[in-house]
Design goal:
The complex is a heterodimer of chains A (662) and B (117). In chain A, 65% of the residues lie in helices and 13% in strands. With 662 residues, chain A is α+β, with helices and mostly antiparallel strands. The chains are: A alpha+beta (662), B alpha/beta (117).
């Protein structure tokens, strides 16, 4: 229990330490504020500084050791100098003592000068050596005065002794030597002893000091190394952390970008190169996100526009045979669900069998000549329905220079149907307009003609009234009769004007395909024919030349003849039938005939072309007259003939040459 | 006196000739406006009028006269009158509504009847 508790406490302490280090690394140092270069420089400078401090401390210790060595050398020199003075003084005494023993005055006199100069020389040397000692050496303050005193005393003693020797008082010489010179010798011996004692003291001190220096050096070197290592490790860790963290984020961001997560952002700390990189990354991914959204929006609009306009797009690489479709193209072609990648074959599989060869040729031609493609064809869908499509494409070169077609395929079924419906509606409208126009025209003509006719009838009756009087009033009768003539003339004039209208009207002559005009009229009159269960059949010559004609007038004639025919056969049994034929009569004219199996012609067949001749209760008898006027104004002829079976046939000819006479 | 209002000269002439033949004096007017402006509608015993005329129509003339409180018997003669128009005319007090071309005997009988009333 206790152990585990302690372990936990240790772990806690460890974690706390790690946290503290992290906090210091992240916050206290604020490494992110500095550029990575500055950071690395800081690290290097710190390590170098730590090493320099260590080396400085070491150098200082070495300096201490050297000072001790200098001190020892000085002490040694001092001791030697003092020792030399002592030996000098001793040899001086011994020489004088030897001379005193020999009592040789002459020799003493000879040697006094050399002795004096040599002893003074030696002592001066000793003094010089002592004065040249390094400042670290602390001289005994009594040493130099003592040496000076000896230096001064020796020549005096020598002079005194020399004087005594001259007087041959050897006893006094020997006494003086013992009492005066000998103490000098023992004094120098004392100096030597003192200096030696001091030197040994200082030596032991120096040794102790050098020992200390040695110990310090042994401590400083590893401590410096460890401290430097610690600083280097900490800074390295902090800097690595301040670099690898943002780098890791950038790497994660790059992976997210690669996966298409354009909303990914990296967090930005500080103001270093990586922060700049992070900002640039965020900016880039933001732009990419905007672009991607705009692209998606545009794609959605495009898809919607394609759906609304029933227009799909496609690409076709001729070299690789690769075909790509938009969604709408898939909807148009409705390929087998199993087919995931479309091909030219999957297009051809849908093409209406009647159009396959044409489509194949057109695609082959476009692929061969590298020219644009514009083709309308049908598709036969699996449910049997038929679609009309228009494919438009133009050639481009892909990045490798291979031929590729980019195009659009439009489902024009609806517009085809609308076109058809419009054509039918236009046809019906034209029918109504023409019938109404004709009806209005005939009503107007009827009114115009009716007035003089009514007047003529009244005038004739008035004339008869005057003649029936007893006696007849011939004058009044003549007047009424002349009014009758005037009225009738006026009626005839109106008819002439109508016929003139069709001859010199504002008709517009243009090349007209008579067969087409016939087919159009059949479409127009289909309702009318169906209403009375009349079937209309055609037998139209294929090689019919075009004629110069007023299309509307020509169709009025056709409508008139066909309406007459329907009128004639609508009560026929078993079934009414109308046959419209066209053929070339000869090189100069064509003939159109409308046959019915109806009631046939009245006895006076030619009269029905006269104006106002009619056998129909609701007719006014102008149709055939106007029709004949129109055909004759075109340089043709209109006539009727009885069929061998039931019914009648109306024929008209039209010149095919352009130079027909009017 | 009988007034004849018709834009067609032939019809005017024929009607005046017929009236003369049966001994009825008649005056002709080329339009309804001309008739109204002549101020003779007060002395008119019977009015024979066309329905469709340029300017004021026969039915409008009838309405104007009715509005003036001028009760002239009117006989309409028209080339293209339908049943609706006929009913409208008769409801507004017309004596007769005759289609062109007309039976002269029937017209004369109608005029005589109108004058007697």
């Amino acid at each position: 229990m206790g152990n585990s508790g302690q372990a936990v406490a240790n772990q806690d302490a460890g974690a706390k330490l790690v946290r503290w280090v992290k906090r210091v690394g992240d916050e206290a140092l604020h490494l992110h504020r500095f550029n990575i270069g500055s950071r690395l420089t800081l690290c290097c400078v710190s390590i170098i500084l730590a090493m320099l401090v260590g080396d400085g401390v070491l150098l200082w210790q070495f300096h201490l050791a050297r000072a001790q060595r200098e001190l020892l050398r000085g002490v040694d020199e001092e001791a030697i100098a003092v020792l030399q003075i002592h030996i000098n003084v001793m040899s001086f005494y011994e020489r004088l003592d030897a001379l005193a023993q020999s009592e040789d005055t002459a020799r003493l006199g000879e040697e006094v000068d050399s002795l004096r100069s040599s002893v003074l020389e030696e002592i001066r040397h000793g003094r010089d050596a002592l004065s040249r000692l390094p400042p670290e050496v602390q001289l005994d303050p009594a040493l130099l005065p003592a040496v000076e005193a000896i230096q001064e005393a020796l020549p005096e003693q020598l002079e005194a002794i020399a004087a005594l020797a001259k007087s041959r008082d050897w006893e006094a010489v020997r006494l003086r030597l013992a009492k005066e010179v000998r103490p000098l010798e023992s004094r120098t011996a004392t100096l030597v002893q003192n200096v030696d004692r001091e030197a040994s003291e200082q030596r032991s001190q120096a040794v102790a000091s050098i020992d200390r220096v040695q110990r310090r050096v042994f401590l400083i070197v590893p401590v410096t190394a460890v401290l430097t290592l610690l600083i280097a490790a900490f800074l390295g860790w902090a800097i690595r952390r301040s670099i690898t963290q943002p780098l890791g984020q950038l790497m994660e961001g790059s992976k997210a970008l690669a996966l298409g997560e354009f909303q990914h952002r990296v967090s930005i700390v500080g103001n270093d190169e990586l922060a700049h990189l992070g900002r640039a990354f965020n900016h880039t991914s933001g732009r990419l996100h905007d672009l991607y959204e705009a692209l998606q929006t545009r794609e959605a609009y495009l898809a919607e526009a394609q759906r609304l306009s029933h227009t799909g797009s496609f690409g076709w690489n001729v070299a690789t045979g690769k075909v790509s479709w938009s969604d709408e193209t898939f909807r148009i072609f409705e390929p087998d669900p199993a087919i995931l990648t479309p091909s030219v074959e999957s297009v051809l599989r849908r093409v209406h069998p009647a159009d396959v060869d044409r489509v194949r040729q057109e695609f082959g031609r476009a692929g061969r000549d590298a020219t644009g493609l514009d083709i309308e064809h049908r598709l036969l869908m699996p449910d049997g329905s038929v679609k009309h499509v228009r494919a438009v494409a133009h050639p481009v070169r892909d990045s490798m220079g291979r031929l590729e077609f980019v195009g659009a395929v439009m489902d024009v079924t609806a517009s085809k149907q609308a076109e058809e419906a419009l054509r039918q509606a236009q046809g019906a409208l034209a029918h109504v307009t023409r019938v109404t126009a004709l009806g209005e025209m005939t009503t107007t003509i009827a009114h115009e003609v009716n007035q003089p006719l009514a007047a003529a009838i009244t005038d004739s009756n008035t004339c008869l009234r005057w003649l029936a009087r007893d006696p007849p009033n011939l004058e009044e009768a003549r007047e009424a009769a002349s009014r009758t003539v005037k009225d009738a003339t006026r009626a005839a004039e109106i008819i002439r004007r109508i016929r003139f209208l069709f001859q010199k009207g504002t008709e517009q002559r243009e090349p007209v395909d008579v067969n087409e005009a016939i087919r159009e009229m059949i479409v127009l009159l289909r309702d009318e024919a169906d209403r009375y269960c009349v079937s209309i059949r055609t037998d139209l010559a294929a090689d019919l030349p075009q004629v110069m004609a007023d299309r509307v007038q020509l169709q009025q004639v056709l409508m008139n003849l066909m309406l007459n025919g329907i009128e004639a056969v609508r009560k026929a049994r078993p079934a009414g039938e109308l046959m419209v034929k066209s053929r070339c009569a000869d090189a100069t004219k064509l003939v159109v005939s409308v046959s019915d199996n109806g009631v046939g012609l009245a006895s006076q067949a030619e009269r029905m072309f006269d104006a106002f001749y009619t056998t129909k209760p609701e007719g006014i008898g102008l149709g055939l007259a106007i029709s004949r006027s129109i055909i004759e104004s075109h340089g043709g002829r209109l006539w009727a003939s009885a069929n061998s079976g039931p019914g009648a046939t109306f024929h008209f000819t039209l010149p095919t040459g352009t130079d027909h006479s009017e | 006196m009988i007034a004849i209002v018709d834009d067609d000269e032939s019809v005017r002439g024929a009607l005046q000739g017929l009236m003369k033949a049966v001994g009825l004096p008649a005056r002709t007017f080329a339009s309804a406006e001309e008739f109204l402006e002549s101020g003779q509608h007060r002395e008119t015993g019977c009015l024979i009028a066309d329905i469709r005329m340029p300017g004021m129509s026969g039915l409008e003339l009838q309405a104007t006269l009715n509005a003036d409180g001028c009760r002239i018997p009117i006989i309409f003669i028209t080339a293209h009158g339908d049943e609706k128009m006929r009913m409208q005319a008769l409801r507004a007090g017309a004596v007769e509504f005759i289609a062109k071309p007309f039976d002269d005997e029937a017209l004369v009988e109608s005029v005589r009847a109108a004058l007697h009333n």
